[in-house]
Design brief:
The protein has 226 residues and is of the alpha+beta class. The chain has helices spanning 2-7, 17-24, 107-116, 118-144, 147-162, 180-187, 191-203, 219-224, and strands spanning 28-32, 37-39, 47-53, 56-61, 67-73, 78-79, 93-96, 100-106, 163-165, 172-174, 207-209, 214-216. The chain is globular, with a radius of gyration of 19 Å.
């Protein structure tokens, strides 16, 4: 089972069955219920998590308690963020959104895997670079765009990552249990502003949403929303 999961994770593409089996021997299978923390910011960064099933979100919290830098993860993603770069503690808190399973490996063992397999180390660099670029893009978006543009950009990014075809022609269903607080953290605004923006986008026929789902109905219109 662990080998099948590793085969689905981009970091390990190209490794032989024997190599995957060797890595799999270092892994521990764990699971969390919705709302449980996978790891908490500030805790010693002793492990890396390879998501096998379910969904999780990671966020940072300001001294005033506001959540920022929200990101979402699905099967095949690696959790732990920039702690791979030598940080002593997790810089984010990761929480399961639904029942979630992951393979956990000790940080020291993961470093040994990277030393033994340069392709894995290069893959880690790609993941870290991508997340840094996404964080910079979010900062620029929050600094120069309207709340509507920021909320729309967040919804479109989630649709690209977690979307599946919806019931209506051209619609994309985002399969994440999003809250207004989640969207507020992504857009760098308040939950109240997100609620007003979502209502306006819904009246315009650009999106629809329910208790645990959101659908993009008009991608072109959402891109142009101001």
């Amino acid at each position: 089972m662990q080998r099948r999961i590793l085969e689905q994770i981009g970091l390990f593409h190209g490794l032989s069955g024997t190599e995957l089996a060797s890595i799999g021997a270092r892994l521990q299978s764990l699971s969390w219920s919705a709302g449980e923390a996978v790891f908490t910011a500030g805790d010693p960064a002793e492990h890396v998590y390879l998501l096998a099933a379910g969904q999780a979100k990671a966020f940072r919290t300001t001294p005033t308690g506001q959540r920022t830098s929200l990101d979402f993860f699905g099967p095949g993603d690696v959790l732990g963020g920039l702690t791979w770069a030598g940080r002593s503690g997790y810089t984010e808190t990761a929480v399961a959104l639904v029942t979630t399973c992951a393979l956990r490996i000790d940080a020291g063992a993961f470093r040994e895997v990277m030393l033994a397999h340069p392709s894995v180390a290069l893959g880690v660099l790609d993941v870290v670079s991508d997340r840094l670029a996404r964080a910079r893009s979010t900062e620029q978006l929050q600094a120069s765009n309207t709340v509507t543009e920021r909320v729309a950009a967040g919804l479109l990014r989630l649709a690209d990552t977690f979307g599946v075809p919806g019931d209506e022609p051209g619609a994309t269903l985002i399969q994440l249990p999003l809250t207004r607080a989640d969207l507020a953290a992504m857009a760098g605004t308040s939950a109240e502003s997100v609620s007003r923006t979502m209502s306006r986008l819904r009246r315009a026929g650009l999106i629809d949403s329910g208790r645990r789902w959101t659908a993009v109905l008009d991608r072109t219109g959402l891109l142009a929303a101001k």
